Amino acid sequence: MRAAQILVVDDNADDRRFASEALAAGALRSEVSTAEDGDEALALLRREGRYATAPRPDLILLDLHMPGKSGFDVLAEIRRDPGLRAIPVIVLSGSTDAGDVRSSYDGCASSYIAKPADLDAYDAVVAAIEQFWLTTASLPGPAP
After folding, report:
1. Which end of the chain is more exposed for a tag (fewer CB within 10 A), N or C?
2. Spatial contact of 54 and 33, defined as CB atoms under 8 Å apart
3. pLDDT tens for residues 47-102?
């Protein structure tokens, strides 16, 4: 069985590292790619430039509030692209604003989870995401 491909998109280097470390420590075999902003995430997803050989992610963890293209923008572009729209996108945001939650689901986010402030709780949330989305849920794989 191949390793699951997970893309973490977050402008905060610590949050990218926390998510990557939590996934590496998980029970499942995952390969993690990271992007520090929306433009880099879309280039990776579209396999543009230096990302020409990037693997297609099975799951995306997406922060909302980033400079440049926001998570909302990235989510909208993913959902418009027939080759990407089936990838589950989990919004993992520091925001607990009801408007952000509603807008994420209106944009067809697969799930919305507020980032816990405590590192142990953060690890537990990432482990739960990984467990559900990569073990329990059936994922579609690449578009034909």
Report:
1. C
2. yes
3. 999 999 999 999 999 999 999 999 999 999 999 999 999 999 999 999 999 999 99
13-52 residue pLDDT tens: 999 999 999 988 877 778 999 999 999 999 999 999 999 9
Residue 61 within any structural domain of the chain: yes
Assign 60 to helix, strand or coil: strand
Range of the domain at 61: 4-135
Beta-carbon contacts of 13 under 8 Å, excluding residues fewer than 6 positions away, are 36
Is the residue at 141 inside a domain?
no
CATH number at residue 85: 3.40.50.2300
DSSP assignment of 63-117: -S--SSS-HHHHHHHHHH-TTTTTS-EEEEES---HHHHHHHHHTT-SEEEEPPS
Let me know if residue 114 belongs to a domain.
yes
